[in-house]
Design brief:
Length: 212
């Protein structure tokens, strides 16, 4: 059986510029997000443990939040260290003149920080995330990591005609955290593809090591 992730419900192929994988609803299975062109919606596909994947683009509210965006880099991050994987996306159109023909679509677009309620439903954190998320960019590549080793996930993204933008997380370090450094011995040195499971009582956190 096919995964049914290449086309939307109308049979239109998805552009698919950026992709990332995470357990978004606490079931231990890797679901994934994929960014796309404007009017195509960035998509969320929920892994139920068997094919096909469930298309949760609309039920997750991701479709409504990204309908006018051209998305590129995206990553699941637990920005507030509550054990739930949130989402960051950077956007930017390819046509500088698009606003002349389509007033509701801009060339420079806002990045998105989306908070997950633990069930794979997202809310836009624009109002509390800082001035970067009120500013349009011609953004493309995105990388995440704890660059200052304070226990929370920071981010940096590249722009076509400007300097890279470094986002320093000032929230996540307020909660408890612990880190792991995985080193491949029989596999690749960076242990990309490894699965890490942490259990606390009845709660299970599952993470995968992915390449940037």
């Amino acid at each position: 059986m096919d995964a049914e992730v290449a086309y939307d419900p109308s049979g239109v192929a998805k552009a698919g510029m950026g992709i990332d994988v995470a357990d978004v609803n606490g079931d231990g299975w890797p679901s994934f997000v994929m960014t796309a062109f404007d009017s195509e919606y960035h998509s969320l596909f929920i892994n139920t443990g068997a094919f096909p994947f469930d298309d949760a683009t609309l039920s997750s509210r991701l479709g409504r939040l990204t309908m006018q965006d051209v998305g590129w880099g995206t990553h699941f991050i637990d920005y507030d260290n509550d054990g739930i994987m949130d989402l960051i996306v950077v956007n930017g159109h390819v046509n500088k003149m698009v606003g002349m023909a389509r007033p509701n679509v801009a060339y420079k677009e806002l990045p998105l920080l989306l908070r997950n309620n633990g069930k794979g439903v997202f809310a836009d954190m624009k109002e509390s995330a800082g001035p970067t998320f009120h500013t349009g960019y011609d953004a493309r590549g995105l990388a995440v990591g704890d660059y200052d080793n304070d226990g929370d996930t920071d981010a940096i993204f590249a722009c076509l005609q400007g300097s890279p933008v470094l986002l320093h997380n000032n929230l996540g370090q307020d909660n408890a955290w612990f880190g792991f450094q995985l080193v491949g011995t029989r596999s690749n040195r960076d242990a990309i593809g490894s699965k890490l499971t942490v259990r606390q009582g009845n709660r299970k956190l599952v993470r995968w090591i992915t390449g940037e």
